[in-house]
Specification:
The protein has 308 residues and is an alpha+beta fold. Among the domains are: 96 residues, Beta Barrel (Elongation Factor Tu (Ef-tu), domain 3); 103 residues. Helix content is 44%, strand content 27%. The strands form 3 sheets. The protein has a 6-stranded antiparallel β-barrel. Strands 2-9-7-4 form a 4-stranded antiparallel sheet, with no helix packed on it. A 4-stranded antiparallel sheet has the order 6-5-3-8. The radius of gyration is 43 Å and the shape is elongated. The chain starts with a helix and ends with a strand. The N terminus is likely disordered.
Length: 308
């Protein structure tokens, strides 16, 4: 073998050695990558748990200016329903209250007069009784004053009953006025939460009735993630347990902390959004996790991974 052939042979050996080393390094990298990769413990989606705001009164919708996707504040007015008829009924009741108040004053005045008469009769009765005992007054005089006393006492009882009836009537009118005030207040519909308008169901000018949905609101600053775990995983979780939530955005992943606040006590088949039929046949347990979303990154329907 000449020198040139020897050099080629050594060069070939070196290339084979280098190839083996590179192959080993690649396999090591793959194994290392697989060993470092951590699979999620559970999977789920951010669910729609919107609050539906409904009408409580009857009438034409005079104002309804919110739109889908609009942010609303708690106690912000979102709709106004016509309250003209309620106000008219209230005015009638208030007029009736004025009449009742006049009756109450008249009855109280009569009662005051009768009480004065009763006091005067009691004084005369004592005087005539003394005169009768001394022989200075007749039996008829004593009987007459006693009769007047009984009649006056009966009149006071009657006027007291009348007064109670008038007062009860006034209380009834007061209650009806309060009821109308409550209905008028309820016809001014305010947002019960800080949130986003997911969907509107009516338009300005339409007719509202009790129970008719007006819009749905979602608190997007705190979302609910509904995930699913197997029976064997139940021992790993508990209520108020903190977990890690991961959501993929293309090549990046965001991680936030969540809190388990509900664990189902009934098994169910894996939901249909799971890709394979085999996985959908498995029985799983649903859990709900509160996830803060003040930055608004997460959206309803987004899939997420859960790590216990």
């Amino acid at each position: 073998m000449n020198i040139h052939e020897e050099k080629n042979k050594n060069k070939f050996k070196n290339m084979r050695t280098l190839s083996k080393i590179l192959g080993i390094l690649m396999i090591t990298a793959v194994i290392s990558s697989c060993s470092n990769e951590k699979n999620a413990d559970a999977y789920g989606n951010f669910e729609d748990d919107a609050l539906v705001v409904s009408a409580e009164g009857v009438g034409k919708i005079l104002e309804f200016s919110i739109e889908d996707g609009q942010e609303v504040k708690k106690q912000q007015i979102i709709a106004v329903i016509d309250t003209v008829q309620l106000h008219l009924k209230k005015e009638i009741l208030i007029a009736g209250k004025s009449t009742i108040d006049s009756k109450v004053r008249n009855v109280e005045a009569q009662k005051l007069v009768l009480n004065e008469q009763l006091n005067s009769l009691k004084i005369n009765q004592k005087r005539i009784q003394k005169m009768f005992n001394d022989g200075a007054a007749t039996q008829k005089q004593l009987d007459d004053i006693n009769s007047q006393l009984i009649i006056t006492e009966q009149k006071i009882k009657n006027i007291t009953t009348q007064s109670q009836s008038v007062v009860a009537e006034k209380k009834s009118l007061d209650a009806q006025v309060q009821q109308l005030n409550d209905l008028i207040k309820k016809n001014i519909i305010k947002s019960p939460i800080n949130g986003t308008v997911l969907e509107t169901f009516v338009k300005q000018g339409e007719f509202a009735a009790p129970g008719k949905p007006l819009c749905s609101l979602q608190n997007t600053k705190n979302l609910t993630l509904r995930a699913y775990v197997s029976e064997t995983q139940l021992s790993q979780i508990k209520l108020n347990q903190k977990v890690k939530i991961e959501v993929d955005f293309g090549d990046t992943t965001t991680t936030k902390e969540g809190l388990i606040y509900w664990i189902s006590d009934k098994a169910e088949f894996t939901p249909k959004q799971i890709q394979t039929k085999e996985e959908r046949k498995n029985l799983v347990y649903a859990i709900k996790i509160k996830v803060g979303n003040k930055d608004g990154v997460y959206k309803i329907g987004m899939p997420a991974n859960v790590e216990f």
